[in-house]
Amino acid sequence: MTNHKLLIVGTVAALAILVAGGAYLSGRSEADRFAQCRTGNVAGGMEAFGTDFTLTRQDGARVTAAEVFTRPSLLYFGYTFCPDVCPMDTARNAEAQALLAGQGSEVQLVFVTVDPRRDTPEVLTTFGEQFSEDIVGLTGSDEEIAAVNKGWRNYYKANDAEDDQYYLVDHMTNTFLVMAGGATAEFFPRDTPAEDMARKVGCFLDAAS
Predict the structure, then answer these.
(1) Where exactly are the structural domains of the chain?
(2) Sign of CA dihedral 60, 62, 65, 71
(3) What residues contact 11, with CB distance under 8 A and at least 6 apart?
(4) Among the listed residues 180, 78, 84, 83, the one whose alpha carbon sits nearest the alpha carbon of residue 128
(5) CA-based nearest residue to 83, from 169, 158, 179
(6) Which of 48, 42, 81, 45 is nearest to 150 (CA)?
(7) How many Cα atoms within 13 Å fall on the side-chain side of residue 60?
(8) CATH class of the domain defined by 51-208
(9) pLDDT for the residue 35
(10) Rounded Cα–Cα distance for residues 118 and 36 (Å)
């Protein structure tokens, strides 16, 4: 093989390596762009959380996940008859939302009921208005609520065997950060202070920009 042909072959090989390396680094950068913001790992990764859905918003409109998650959102699963935990968590999320707004970052609150029997759109409207002007309340059929909870690995159980009116509902209390487009980026336990939540969410928003 002549030196000219060797040069061509070598150049093509080098370009192929550069293209492959660039694609690898690009994919790695996309996968790791939030790595500096995360404080822990979960089995299956955060990409295992989430699902498509169609639910009923507090104004009565039927909406899909794509229509809800048009911007970064703090997603919480709870119910309005909850005596303490849900109001406290929603208030904390609203405080984090306000802190982020003060820094020029907008996030919305999304509240998905685990008690669709009692949480009608009207009830969700009254509940949400206590905490934020920018909160989306979602309800649906028993099957729809079960499916969306399963998508975010959220356990819940209504204790209504003896009382079908004033029962309580066991449920998990994580808040999820869902980015615009519907990808779940992080979750926050209920003992996360609003200031820490706002700081960590801000990291994700900066990394996404």
Answers:
(1) 51-208
(2) negative
(3) none
(4) 78
(5) 169
(6) 48
(7) 1
(8) alpha beta
(9) 82
(10) 41
Direct distance between the N- and C-terminal alpha carbons of the chain, in angstroms, rounded to an integer: 50
Match 């009921």 to its residue by tokens: 113
Angle among Cα 43, 47, 48 to the nearest 5 degrees reads 55
Angle formed at CA 89 by CA 120 and CA 146, multiple of 5 degrees: 45
| Structure token pair of residue 19 | 């293209």
What are the strands, taking DSSP E only, across the chain? 54-57, 62-64, 73-78, 108-113, 135-139, 156-158, 169-171, 175-178, 184-188
How far, rounded to the nearest angstrom, does the alpha carbon of residue 30 sit from its chain's CA centroid? 18
* Two tokens, residue 8: 């061509």
Check residue 32 and give its pLDDT: 67
**At CA 140, angle to CA 139 and CA 146, rounded to 5?**
100
pLDDT at res. 39: 74
CA 172 to chain centre: 14
The 10 Å Cβ neighbour count of residue 6 is: 10
What confidence score (pLDDT) does residue 108 get? 98
Residues lower than pLDDT 70 in the chain: 1-32, 40, 43
Torsion over CA: 102, 71, 176, 76 (sign): positive
SS3 142: helix
